[in-house]
Design brief:
Blueprint (H helix, E strand, L loop, with lengths): L1 H9 L35 E3 L1 H7 L8 E2 L4 E9 L9 E6 L4 E6 L10 E6 L4 E5 L2 E5 L2 E3 L5 E3 L7 H4 E6 L3 E2 L2 H6 L8 E9 L13 E6 L5 E6 L15 E9 L12 E4 L6 E3 L3
Parallel strand pairs: 1-3, 5-8, 12-13, 15-17
Antiparallel strand pairs: 2-7, 3-4, 3-6, 4-5, 6-11, 7-8, 9-10, 13-14, 13-16, 14-15, 16-17, 16-18
InterPro entries: DUF5689
Protein name: DUF5689 domain-containing protein
Pfam family, one: DUF5689
Length: 278
């Protein structure tokens, strides 16, 4: 898809002082320095897509697998814990392979949803648990015999992650988004001139998630799901018309093929609501 290719090219933080990686890595002269202190881009490191990472390591064994070689992955923060939806966790999405992996931390995660990242993953452990692929510090077993990954210490995050620019926002109509939803999953989109169907309600309540619908002037609507743990959960929803910027995601509660009915928009924070434009 054109949008994904544009995002892929914008993720070209893989050059150290103008020296390009070889192989399948895109070459670019427009390289900015990492904004996180102490992070070192490694031209000699193998660049893996998240799909390659999952294929390379046997993630379905009972034990975590430690990454012993210089390797890097890159992608987009598709979900974070800044608003309480996740706990000490971020989900990194690769728009090219359309695969995601979870990062486990031992403190609140500092980077916001929609940011692009490059990760040095040597020394981390890969683990598979409850259907999710996880990167973390090391494996441990609790007193109930359950295996987990310890979170990556906050003080080492700067050596693991590079915070890049926010990903570009694709402007779409609600009709376009619903017709081609699979092309937009885990991407930031902007839908103009919409409103909540029910405006006499709060975003969520009593730590329980709540589903809302926003609609456009043509009566097309899309689901917006809000966690009860969001900091703004008790506030009344945005009143009147607005432009909405959000992350497209899939929320599945049952088996079967994914359809547009499983699509939802994720709210990062209240700044994602902008005054309506023409």
């Amino acid at each position: 898809m054109t949008t994904s290719r544009k995002i892929y090219s914008l993720l070209a933080l893989i050059v150290l002082w103008g020296t390009a990686l070889t192989g399948c890595v895109d070459k670019s002269d427009d390289i900015s320095e990492p904004t996180v202190p102490d992070f070192v881009l490694k031209p000699e490191a193998e660049l893996l897509s998240i799909a390659d990472l999952k294929a390379k390591y046997d993630l379905y064994t009972p034990n975590a697998v430690k990454i012993e070689t210089d390797e890097q992955i890159r992608g987009i923060i598709s979900m974070d814990d800044s608003q309480g939806s996740l706990y000490k966790t971020a989900i990194i999405y690769d728009p090219i392979s359309k695969e995601a992996i979870r990062m486990q931390f031992n403190s609140s995660y500092p980077f916001r949803q929609g940011s692009e990242v490059v990760m040095n993953i040597k020394g981390l452990n890969v683990f598979h648990s409850t259907g999710a692929h996880i990167l973390g510090a090391q494996q441990y077993t609790n007193n109930k015999g359950n295996d987990y990954l310890l979170g990556i210490p906050y003080q080492t995050i700067s050596k693991v992650l590079s915070l890049g620019n926010d990903t570009p926002i694709t402007e779409v109509t609600m009709e376009e988004l619903k017709a081609n939803y699979a092309d937009y999953v885990n991407l930031m989109v902007k839908i103009k001139n919409v409103e909540f169907k029910n405006q006499d309600i709060t975003y969520a309540d009593n730590d329980e998630s709540r589903e809302h619908f926003i609609e456009d002037a043509n009566g097309e609507d899309i689901k917006v799901r809000v966690s009860g743990y969001e900091k703004f959960a008790s506030q009344k929803v945005r009143q009147g018309k607005f432009d909405f910027v959000g992350m497209v995601s899939i929320f599945k509660t049952s088996g079967g093929n994914v359809s547009e009915n499983d699509m939802q928009l994720a709210i990062r924070n209240l700044n994602d609501f902008e005054d309506a434009s023409n």
